Amino acid sequence: MEERSGVPDGDFERFERFLDDWSRRDFLKRVGGAAAFASLSGGALAFLEACGGGGGGGSSSATTPKKGGHVTEGWAFDIKTFNSVLTQDVYSSLCIGMCLDPLLNSKANGDLVPYIAQEVPKVASDGNTYTFKLRKDVKWSDGQPLTSDDVLFTYNLIFAPEYAAVASPRRGDFTQHVANISAPDPYTFVVKTQTPYAPFLVTHGQYGIMPKHVLGSLAPAAINTADFNSAPMVTNGAFKFVRWDKGAQVVFTRNPNYYRGAPLLDQFVYKVVPNTTAVANQLKTGEIDAGQLDPSQVDSMRTEQSIGITGFAVPGFQFYMQNLDPSKPTGQIFQDLAVRQALYTAINRDGIVKTVLFGQGQVANSVEPPTSWAWNPNAKPVYKYDPSKANQMLDQAGWQKGSDGIRAKSGLKLQFTMLYSANSPVLSGIAQVMQENWKAIGVGLTNKEIQFSSLVTQITDTRDFDIILVGFNWTQDPDESQLFGSKGTARGGFNGFDFKNDQVDKLLSDATTTTDPAKRKQLYFQYQDLMNEQLPAPILYFNKFNYGVNKRVQNYGYGTFNQYGPRPWMKDVWVTDGK
Amino acid sequence: MAGYLARRLLWAIPVVFGVTLITFLLMHFTAGNYVPGLELNPNLKPSDVERIRENLGLDRPLIVQYLDWVGVGSIIQAVGLAGLLGGSHNIQPGLLEGNFGRSLIDGTPVLRDIIERLPNTIELTLTAIFLGAAISIPVGVVSALRRGSRLDQTVTAASVGGFAVPQFWLGLLLILLFSVQFHAWGLPWLPSGGATSPLGGGDVVDRLEHLVMPALVLAFFYLSTWSRFVRSSMIETLSQDYVRTARAKGMTDRRTVYVHALRNAVAPLVTLVGLELPGLVSGALVVEVVFGWPGIGLLAFQRAIQTDYTMVMGITTFAAILVVAGNLLADVLYAVVDPRVRYA
Amino acid sequence: MIDSAQVATTQPPPLEAARARPGRGFWRQSWDELSANGAGLTAAGVLVFLILVAVTAPLTSHFVTHYVPTAQDLNDPFSKPSRIHWLGTDELGRDTFTRLVYGAQVTLGIGFLTVAIALTVGTAVALVAGYYGRLLDDVLMRVVDVVLAIPPVFLYILMSILFRPTAITLSVIIASVGWASLARLVRSEVLSLRTRDYMLATRSLGAGDLRLILRHLVPNALPLMIVAASLALAQVVLIEAALDFLGLGIQPPTASWGNMLSNAQVYFVHSTWLVVLPGTCIFITVLAANLFGNAIRDAFDPRLRGAA
CA torsion C255→C260→C264→C265, rounded to 10°? Predict the structure, then answer.
């Protein structure tokens, strides 16, 4: 198998094409600052902000849950597929999670919980073997029992050579780390990794299991376009698929035989809305019950009596990657560390969070998001917004301002084009702020909006950009090899900016091969300091999401690590008016 | 008549070919050698990619690819002259066989998605045309009858103004007023998007509720032009000789107006309405985007954002062919109705 | 692009209403008619004013408001009109007044450029097709048919997905589909003009084709072209706004009324000024262009002389 790492789990859905809103202040206000992780591990689930009457969609009230009714969740994007190994966007993952359960799932705070597996497996003494004991009571919606055959089939789609034609972005990372998979008996599934790989369970244990008796007979290439991908008639999750009106909505109905207990709701609808303003409008009119709020809408939504707002930090950040490839025009410029640090110093990140994000975010101080247990709140060096210091740094590094106001040195000009995803007011705002900020230090920035899919191709394949502004979403594991490890520079990987640092590689690899959390944390602290100094792809801010939920909906437990994908709380959701 | 028909039909053919040629070239220069899933599939080696491209015939000369696209390629193959096209690749059916390509995103046939969404667009635009005519006729007539009055001036000002409002702005304002605000005030409110309610809806009332605002926004534009047209047409008809004759004969004003003048004044409106028919398929795009109306326009827009070039070009080709067919039909109808046209 | 219904006149009123004015030429009479049309004059005045505003934008920015359109103030977004910001600020704290003035430059610039290109190309094609007739006419009109058959909005979407256009690129894109309806319009005028007596007369005097076309056809088709041009201008301004709304038009920070309006509607809850101001500017421009076009049409139509 050709060496092609770096496109593991989550991948494209990690890229935040969409504006994220968040605010750390509110967290710290409640929890008193300090240990962010501690506050999150307990708090994220029950985290509500009081608004117009208090309470909100997430609290469990004293009244008894009623069966029946529906919940409509509105999103500004349509889904693409129901195939759990092919999916590349979070919206598809959301819908897949409604009807296809995985071996393991995540709680809001990141802890793994067993789903189809009876318990979260501990790695065997050899450090490589994971044995999943499957529940015996899981049935497909057509009555067939779910066995390890189905699990083996699903994982073979990203592992077995005969299924190489299946266009899964997860195959690269999986085959890189896994030595072999097997199903010794109908309720046991075994995975053996090549070397100890700490992120394994988190990264690869959460794929929705698909039915072998439906997809097994198809030729590998045909699986990419199978009918199942648009209409999964045989499922095993909390809800059953009813229909997908493309561009309009996806409708699910209760699975009465769900092995974890039948859901209280009759139906769930994933509704496609024109844009984020429409999400806010439809929340107000009640056409949708829940939806992610654009940062600009959060404040005005607080005055709505019928809507409760849930906000929480998410394991994601917004950053810009600088193309370090020496063969590219900017490669030589960005090799100069002073340039990278000066550029970063000149960006008014506080202003961005305050004005472009309406406060729904946190200025970043590290490459690890604060939702991660490995986050170092004191990572050094610390960068404050200081245009005069940035000017100084560039002067000292020999970059002189030309007659056009742009700095130059040995024939190279500090002039860049930045690419970012179109149709995002937040990204557009950030880009314009950066443009102004850099103009003040003699750096010319041209902004260019392109469609998201082209952006992804640029990052993973074409790579002839100067700078790319994009977001990234992580799992609960602090490993960041796919973005900052040198293996990610291969074609198809996310390290499109050609960052190769031996020290970083060693830290990352050491941290994944040991399973001792204390030791890992130490290594990650070193890693964060090193990355802060190197700044190949400086982080602008950490994201926070806000959701509006109609107060008639109870137990809607949006959380940091389980917004997309299966929601453990979904089966307990009920509506007060029973409609 | 037959000669006229034949000539029009004959000239329509190169137009259709011209359209397909343009869309093909546009598609080639945008999507080019793009094959769905190819670039983003990290499992393929570059040699695999080349092989797949060869299989799909993407390395052949442009003209051959064009003939394939149109469907001439498979006809040639059926007749047994496949050798002419060079290579033993897989010839897909073309436009002539109803294959408008496959989506780059999920491989579904473009035509299938078009057929699914087309009725929604037609429903919207036809309703708008109907609304436009239904409102502009009485408005225009009344304005003409009370020419120079306050009412007339208001109507004229409103119609000239109605022309100048950006459609998306109007739509958003209507949503804010009739959906959000009315709901906040406790009044009966209109849904702010989509064609039906996701659950349980689909009945006539539900569909009408969703249809009203988008159709109104679309109709607004027609209203402005048509009411002025009806007005001036009515004014001029009323001053015609035969109207004065009818009055002189003792017919009451009312009867004069409604029976004689109205019919003749409104008839030319048909021409104007006919002019809108080609825009039936594509004219509602902005309105569809604002209201999330699941029609052809919204489909094209959503897919364009996802760089699904084949889908966008398939829709464009389909719409263009419809326009040509529509124009042809309109011409035939005029020739039937107005003999002078046939001999032009 | 042009709805020919707007340009086509209705049946002329009865002859007795037309007052003959002996001794005054066609153009003079038309000018009289135009001057008598209050709405038309106002519209013309408004247009001239807007053009002036657009042209003097850098002066306004330098001497009057003292802001450049891109200067941000992240501490003061969405502010209401005040002494330091006469019309308030936008989402990044930029001065709205300055941006509106520069927006005039971009929006009107695109409008006029597009119309200029489309009119030139369209008229050229129409002149050749209408004058020479027969096969050349058939072929050229089929080309026009092809261009008219493709719904422009799909083409705009496709072309703009590839790149976000600059003002000039956008003008070219819109003109590349817009010339066709103008060509059709002018052609029918040419066809009717071609058979006029003075054409035959001049030809029999030995005038060559080019001379006939340029010295006789064009001036007489001019009124129609002006009408079509002003109506087209109105449409282009609206098209530009719609494309901005779809995210396919002029990219910020360059200000155009269209993109100011579509950005503002996202932030509607934060500032209604931002929505109202550019929208009003667009409205006034389109209205003025339409009224002016109508006025020209009415003034130059001899059948409407004195009919008011």
Answer: -150
